[in-house]
Amino acid sequence: MGRHSMGEFEQLVMVAALRLAPDGYGVSIVEEIEDRTGRDVSQAAAYLTLKRLEEKGWLNGRQVEGGEDRGHRERRCFEVTPEGRERLAQAHMEFTTMWEGLAGEVGR
Fold first, then answer.
1. What is the pLDDT, as a whole number, of residue 3?
2. Is the pTM value of this prediction over 0.85?
């Protein structure tokens, strides 16, 4: 496994793709992040991140035919790869380890 760091937004995108699998696509991933975090997410930032995660081998994208509501235009759906799942688990563990014993420091 290559040693790439995983940024916060990359983690959000990966978790959203994992939640929406196997049919998560750009707009639904943006909506999932916005709904769960309350953050405004730029679609451009999301699509750039999806492309970068594919290049790292952490996501697989595939073209899927759209329904009548889309005029049968294709959309690109994303799934987390086994390497992506492993890297996401590692990032979660690293983050959790860093927070151990500090909940009182931030009022939680």
1. 62
2. yes
When pLDDT is averaged across residues 5-14 and rounded to a whole number, the result is 94
DSSP state of 23: S
Termini Cα distance of the chain: 35
User: Which domains are delineated in the chain?
Assistant: 8-103 (1.10.10.10)
For 31, counting Cβ atoms within 10 Å of its Cβ (0-12 exposed, 13-18 middle, 19+ buried), the class is middle
Rg, C-alpha atoms of the chain? 16
Of 68 and 98, which is predicted with more confidence?
A: 98
d(CA 46, CA 30): 7
